[in-house]
Every structure is written in structure tokens, then in C-alpha cells.
Write a structure and sequence with these properties.
- The protein has helices at residues 3-17, 21-27, 32-47, 85-94; strands at 67-71, 77-81.
- The chain folds into two domains: 3-51; 53-95, no CATH class.
- The longest helix has 16 residues, at 32-47.
- The protein is elongated, with a radius of gyration of 20 Å.
- The two termini are 32 Å apart.
- The chain is mainly alpha-helical.
- It has a two-stranded antiparallel sheet.
- Helix content is 51%, strand content 11%.
Amino acid sequence: MKIREEMTRLVGEYETSGQTQKCFSESRGIGFHKFNYWYRKLQREAAHPGGFHKIECQGARPSGDCRAELVYPNGVVLRIDRPEPELLSRLIRMY
């Protein structure tokens, strides 16, 4: 079985076990930090399937200029004139 499949199965078992991550990982012979890494990784992926965030273009301007607005889950809003794709990518990954 591949590591991802194994860890997905174990995270599912953990969630129904009622144990702490430390007790669960020790009982399965897995290092706590390794298990915690996979738990967080799978939780993030479940929250954002495919790893993509939706970006919508609203009200195209006649001049061709573009503006972007990023709204982070913590409420921070970034408004950017003429955003470059690379800049947007880095800003999205910052959160």
C-alpha cells in the first residue's frame, strides 16, 4: 500500500478513535510528527480540493487594466492593480 493511502486510512481511524494524536500514533508505531504532518496535510486538501482557489474576474475595464482582490479566511483583504500571475500565486500560498 502506498504511503498516502496508508496515511489516509490511518487518519480516518484516528478521527473515530477518540484518542489524542500522540496516543494514536504511538499505538500504531508511527512517529507523532509524521502522523501530525499527514493529518494537517489531508485536512488542508479536504478544505481546498485540488489545491486551487477560485479567482473571479468582475467588471472588465475598457482600458484592459486588471484589478484583483484576495480575501483571506482571517478577513485580510488585498486589493492589487495590474496583478501578475506569479504575484497572485505567491500571495495565495502565503496563507
